[in-house]
């Protein structure tokens, strides 16, 4: 797996498109496209790219990004599982943030439904 493939994995993990990564790191869309696109030139990331990436995502393991050794993220939760020496698959991220957001939406929906019921009773 090349560094370009690992950048693409990071983008998928963080839910970034070429445009959103370019904007976040203050690079042109073409620069990011040329790093990750199969149809692009597949250029190697610059030192500036690594620096800006690390500033924006402090938990990224740059050693993994450059060499492929270790885990994608510096925290203790493994994100990648090796099927073989060169093949990786992304494991499902934790869904706690989504579950919390869903709980808030359900709570708000209940409140709206209660107001609707009250308005219907008052008519």
TrEMBL record:
<dbReference type="InterPro" id="IPR010982">
    <property type="entry name" value="Lambda_DNA-bd_dom_sf"/>
</dbReference>
<feature type="coiled-coil region">
    <location>
        <begin position="95"/>
        <end position="122"/>
    </location>
</feature>
<dbReference type="GO" id="GO:0003677">
    <property type="term" value="F:DNA binding"/>
</dbReference>
<keyword id="KW-0175">Coiled coil</keyword>
<protein>
    <recommendedName>
        <fullName>HTH cro/C1-type domain-containing protein</fullName>
    </recommendedName>
</protein>
């Amino acid at each position: 797996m090349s560094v370009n493939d690992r950048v693409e994995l990071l983008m998928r993990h963080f839910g970034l498109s070429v445009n959103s990564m370019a904007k976040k790191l203050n690079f042109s869309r073409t620069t990011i496209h040329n790093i990750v696109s199969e149809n692009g030139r597949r250029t190697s990331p610059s030192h500036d790219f690594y620096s800006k990436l690390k500033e924006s995502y402090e938990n990224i393991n740059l050693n993994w990004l450059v060499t492929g050794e270790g885990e994608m993220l510096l925290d203790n939760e493994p994100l990648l599982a090796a099927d073989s020496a060169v093949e990786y698959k992304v494991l499902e991220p934790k869904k706690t943030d989504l579950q919390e957001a869903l709980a808030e939406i359900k709570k708000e929906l209940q409140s709206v439904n209660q107001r609707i019921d009250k308005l219907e009773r008052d008519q």
